[in-house]
Amino acid sequence: MFDLIRSHLARLWKSPVYWLALLVMLPYGLGLSNSAVGDIQSGEAGPGAWGQPLFGPGLLMGMILAAVFALFFGAEYADGTMRSKLVAGHGRGRVYLATLAASLLAALALYLVSLLAWAPRLGWMLKNLPAPETKTLVLCLGGTALLLAGYCSVCVMLCMLIQRRSLLAVVLILLMVLVFFASLQVQDAYETATNGGMQMTVNAAGEQQFVFHEPGQAGPLTAFLYDALPGCQAYRYMDMEAAPRMLACSAALTALTTALGLILFRRKDVR
Length: 271
Description:
mainly alpha; two-stranded antiparallel ribbon
């Protein structure tokens, strides 16, 4: 399996698409750090001053990984690489897990590049802002790593099951966009329910009315999605907010999609 992982990484190293993604992460990470520095200088710095540059990359990572993996791993069916691996005697389980491991290493490299973009400002931030609590920092780092693992497991499952690269690219990118906007809606619904606020309604006469809602509790489904959806998790990590159930949701997503992907890939007719 290690030979398969090395083969993937060697191809990634030569892939213009992956290098383009690495280059994109530099201004992305720099923009997040600039936002944090601006908050510090304006006196509005909160937990997000550390969370933005440290964990902000996870917010858009799903769409970036979808584009990279669709073009990179999706080519394995088109150029016959997948069939060649199986003919050479590599088991389907090893092929699948090697692809997953390589995708996770590629995602971590993208994440690290975004961190390197603002590393020169680390000393300035430590001088002007207290360092985050160790426990919170570890939970958010672990949560972000599991968040990336969840993205990778979903992308790899679809990459291994959809043979047409054009269809794969459309499915992956649309899925990640849908998850991102669903996360925004769930976050808004959760915060409206728990924080209260004004809501506009239209009565039978067509007149607009503003109703104030007292803070309360979100429904069970909204609360679950608020913990489980990757976009909601990324926003909460940016606010230096982490809960064990969020990490458990990401771990469960990774385990379930990996198990399902392995089962379906073993039954797939590879041409």
